[in-house]
Request: fold
Amino acid sequence: MEDKKLSSLIQLVGIYKHFGGVSALEDINFEVGSNEVVGLIGDNGAGKSTMIKVIMGVHRADKGKICFKGEEVKNWSVEKARKCGVETVYQEKALGEKQTVWSNIFMGRELSNRFGFLKIKKAKEETDRIMKDYIGFTSKAITPDSFVNTMSGGEQQGVAIARALYFNAELIILDEPTTALSLSETKKVLDFIKKIKENGRSAIMISHSIYQLYPVSDRFVILDRGKIVGEFKKEEISLDGLVEEMYRIATTGHLSKKS
Amino acid sequence: MLKSNNLMNSSWINSARRYRIQLSVSGVLVVLFSIFIIGRPGVFLSYDIYYAFMSTIPFTAIPALALTLVIVTGEIDLSFPSAMGMGGLVFSYVFLATKNIYIAIVACLITGLIIGALNGFLVTKVRIPSLVATIGTMYLWRGVIMVLCSGRGIPLVSTRNTFLFQALVGRLPWKKIPMQVVWFIVIAIFLWVLLNRHKFGSHVYHLGDNINSARMMGINVNRVKLFVFMQMGVFAAFAGVLASLEVTYFWPTLGSGYLMKAIAAVFVGGTSVVGGVGTLFGTCIGVIIVGCLEAGIIAMGMTGFWTQLVYGLIIIISLSAYSFLRREK
Reply:
């Protein structure tokens, strides 16, 4: 327990979030350790995306605190999350689809001189390298100058993932990263998540597919109607067991035993 | 050899696809001028008509350039004609009071900045959609002008002897090119650099393309919008001064004739009404098309009544063409 505390990367303590009268998150206590991949599971509307947006600083929690490496960070925001090395690959990819690949890779973090003028040539060269090294893009049809809306959904996801990787994230949040991907592209993403761990980084992955989550995650956290209803380490539960628990929650609203 | 030819062809095709909107708008301009030149070679092959265009088009062009940035962010500013009027009014008052044209121009630019900042504040902080917020400020500032000058104009003949007058609306020794064209070109280059070579421009495009993505990626969307409205106010006020100085007279309805022309020029130039897409090159061509149309129609022997009909047709045809071009990926 002591070890776990020491190696804690990010911690959410007693987080509440309301939208109008609707409670989206209720008393969330959640932790990701260093070099750990956490699979976040839950039905539509369970609060997964809201929780991710709280971690990213997009939504501000109504109550509760966020700690990074054991220290509380006040007024958690997008900028602070980024400074701590939290990067997200959103379900909606957070791309400007009418803009070029290079412009998207550096969106909000443009390579520029001290007067703010863009280093376009360098940005394009870096984009070319990033796309080849991290995502393995070999298609000649896609260049740093390609417009994102001319690429497939999977390729767009690749741009978003490459961007997260490039900025040396300590914690990469993957929000349904495989939804739009073909089978072969999905495999690539799953391989990449394994690489995150190999590199000593951490990740939170949200997916509807437990079958995709299971092989890459170290721990599983189950959300239901804005609350964490279960938590399992991989060694505690088999894939079939996890599927069973999910089914039980969907039908009865609770687990077989409190984990 | 064959392979390299193919590669060249494909890169040529890619460039053509990338710049298809700009090529189309340039095509419209070429066709239009071909019609004018064939129809009235005497008029359209002489320098005089181009001199006239250079004297008048910059007053529409400068606000249209600034408006392009506003529309690329997915917003609109309908109050810029009133900002032009306010710029002209403040300039005239300060000049008459101080007899110093430099102080007058600075006061005018600050006025534009304040007008733009108010629009930006209403849109970003009070969260009124820009379409309605700027209708409000359009009436507000026009009302202020009317109240302050009681609907009367102000002669500015005494500005003629100043250096700044010559620098703003004087004529160059070569071909008597009007200085307002030089200002138009300088502002176009400045805004082009800002939009295409500075991170501010990158934020403008991303904000207009997908405001949520821009926010998620840490772009301060409110600050970008505020700056965009502020530059609109400054350039509109500046154009207002140029328009007053050209005729050495401030008139209280100054600016109101430029609203639809500038908006039409931006859209004819290929800027998307939903934001995220648009070029200043397109706006420059658009503004020339819109600016030349009236003179062209009259020179062709048609009555001025045809002007609006042709404006309408050109706008509808170009926007339909862009809509088809954008669908084809």
